[in-house]
Amino acid sequence: MIFDIKKYAIHDGPGIRTTVFFKGCPLHCKWCHNPESIRTSPELGFRQSRCIGCGQCIEVCPDDAISVVDGVITTDSAKCTQCCKCVDACIPAAREIIGSERGINEIVDEIEKDIMFYDSSGGGVTISGGEPLAQPDVLCALLTECRDRGIHTTVDTTCYAKLDVVKRVRPLGDLFLCDVKHLDDKIHRKITGVSNELILSNIRWLDDSGADIIIRMPFVPGYNDSESNIKALGEFVSSLSSVLFIELLLYNSGGREKAKRLVKFVDIVRAKHAEDESVEAATRILESYGLEVKAGSYNE
User: Which domains does the chain have, with CATH numbers?
Assistant: First the structure.
């Protein structure tokens, strides 16, 4: 179950890459940049800006979930059963189904189309999400097929999975992008909905196994940019031996805009954009632990 395949990605690992986004995630981060990835099943999206008000969706909806409110076509999420009949009826393609089941060979054939770019740039394929470890059988099959075709593999993961899943995936990933949201477990539970204990222990296991790791933290003002958290991150990463560098992913509000398109509501907070001074201060703290730090835009 995937919701997107992005060509010519340059923020998801080395070189030019194709990023495959798996659908479904056990974390519900308050600032989620890909809210369409949280639910495991296909869901209905609606782009109001494309709507021409033709009313075809109202006519075909069997649940009477679509109506005109204050001159605007509106979908009642409580009534909508996600049958998606309105998608076929929508002339300007304002309505869409987000997420679909795709076969391994179909995905790999799409990835392989850009192999010349991987070879020239040192790139490859990145499996992201959502959380790819939540679909371990599919993930392992996809990584195996890519490696058999000589394609560099990267797994972009929260590391929130059972250890036996991590152990299965480890030999198939050339690089692991491991997200760390917060080092304080109590705060981590509050802002993501889950504990960070499993995440940190899995990162330690990957490190002990000798995996190439890049630690990535979404830098979200007001949520995880405190000096104490940055120091805790520095202490944690400096205790590891296989981390190539830390990447601070600067928050932007794109997730809120994408959440507005989902008929089934997902609450995404509006945080502040990081100021240069705070990013520079965090970078200096992490560098004081002997770590290499890079700052860039959040996953696009």
Answer: 2-40+99-297 (3.20.20.70), 43-97 (3.30.70.20)
Rounded-to-integer distance, Cα 240 and Cα 234, Å = 10
Burial 40-71 (b: 16+ CB within 10 A, else e): bebbbbbeeeebeeeebbbeebeeebbeeeee
CA 10, 12, 15, 20 torsion-angle sign: negative
Rounded-to-integer distance, Cα 66 and Cα 99, Å: 21
Per the CB < 8 A criterion, the answer to whether 112 and 3 are in contact is no
Mean pLDDT by 10 residues, the chain (300 residues): 93 94 96 94 92 93 93 90 92 94 94 93 96 97 96 98 98 98 98 98 98 97 96 98 96 88 88 92 97 76
DSSP string for residues in 23-86 = ---S---TT-S-GGGSSSS-EEEE-GGG-----HHHHH-TT--EEEETTEEEE-TTT-----HH
185 near 147, Cβ under 8 Å? no
Question: Of the candidates 6, 36, 3, 48, which has an alpha carbon nearest to the alpha carbon of residue 255?
Answer: 36
Residue 252 CB partners (closer than 8 Å, separation 6+): 33, 273, 297, 298
Bridge partners, 296 (sequence order): 249
Residues in CB range of 269: below 8 A, 6 or more apart: 30, 31, 256
The whole model's pTM is what? 0.92
The number of C-alpha atoms within 13 Å of 55 and in the hemisphere containing its C-beta is: 5
Task: Find, among 11, 300, 13, the residue nearest to 152 by Cα.
Answer: 13
Looking only at the bridges linking them, the beta strands covering 43-46 and 95-98 are antiparallel
Q: At a CB cut-off of 8 Å and minimum separation 6, what does 200 contact?
A: 180, 183, 236
Look up residue 115 and give its two tokens.
């192999």
